Amino acid sequence: MTDVQTGPEAETAADQPARAGVVKSRRVVLVGAGALGAGCLLTACGTSATGGGGSNGANGGDYSNDPAPAGSKGAEAGGTGSTSDNDASGGGATLAQVADIPEGGGIIKGDYVITQPAAGKYKAFSKVCTHAGCDVSKVDGGVIVCPCHGSTFSMEDGSPVSGPAKQPLPEKKVTVDGDNIVSA
């Protein structure tokens, strides 16, 4: 049952003065609840900065846009990080085969661009452009090319050659071990 007041002291809603902080409508409460629910849904659908089972690179790779400080031991390069990626001699992870890297050119494999600027000299760089986080697409004419905004980088040291990128591609030290190019 509802308690209804009758008598001269009962006021109608129209007679009551507006009070600050009093919600006049259920609509306001429902709109607020809907906004809160939408905010929670958007937060739940966002990406995790920690990689919680996913990846932490800009475009889905394991490369981090926030690398560890120089001299610290960061994530190993290439593949899944399993021991099958490592060679039997105890070197680093195998990134590519020597025969796959053309002299004066390069390939994109895994999270890296691997180049051979001169015969027998191999370099590896992150494939993530330092301008806007796009993946570079090819090595052509002595430069590493990013298709998003036209940045190009030197295949010898990863430094920007043209375009909006101002920072070089991060380098990964590599060595040759038999027929493999491995992380140093």
Assign the CATH class of one domain.
Mainly Beta
Strand order of the largest sheet: 2-3-4-9
Structural class: alpha+beta
Mean pLDDT: 73
How much helicity do the residues have?
A: 10-25%
Record the SSE blueprint:
Blueprint: H1 26-45, E1 94-97, E2 105-109, E3 112-118, E4 121-126, E5 138-140, E6 143-145, E7 152-154, E8 160-162, E9 171-172, E10 174-177, E11 180-183
Antiparallel strand pairs: 1-11, 2-3, 3-4, 4-9, 5-6, 6-7, 7-8, 10-11
Describe the structure.
With 184 residues, this protein is of the alpha+beta class. Helix content is 11%, strand content 24%. The chain has a domain at 83-183: Rieske Iron-sulfur Protein (3-layer Sandwich), CATH 2.102.10. Strand 10 (174-177) and strand 11 (180-183) form a beta hairpin. The chain starts with 25 loop residues before the first helix and ends with a strand.
Can you summarize this structure?
With 184 residues, this protein is an alpha+beta fold. Helix content is 11%, strand content 24%.
Tag the structure with descriptive keywords.
single chain; 184 residues; alpha+beta; Rieske Iron-sulfur Protein; four-stranded antiparallel β-sheet; 1 helix; 11% helix
